[in-house]
User: What shape does this take?
Amino acid sequence: MARVINTNSPGKRRNAHMRTIAEIIRRLSQEQEITQESKDMAAMLVYCLRGIDSTVEESMVAWEKRGYWKKSDEFQQKWWWASRMSQSIEALLRDEHWEKLPETMMQLYTHVSDLKVNRLTRDPSAWQGAYQKLRNEGPS
Assistant: This one.
């Protein structure tokens, strides 16, 4: 029987989320006012950050199964910000504190600043309706 290789690894998914975050930050920085699309983009950031956090958990579980406790701990420390930022942005969106959005984007930018975004590859349809979806989830 052949070995099954998972090509959708946590690392690949994490990188895809990071790229999406970098593109959204770039697009949001060009917005002059808060529109429905900018609300959707901000909500998509929450989903991307949650996705990053879930891949971190997935990687940690795999390493802990093999007894790599220290590596798992260090990895968690490296990525702890994703969960914190997701909660922060979600609270900002739920309370509609739009004046805090630029400051929060700058905090998030420090984590993706090493990614070069030469051209925008994410289709805006990816985040359409994300704000309403987040609002429909109810408080977390």
The chain has five helices and no strands.
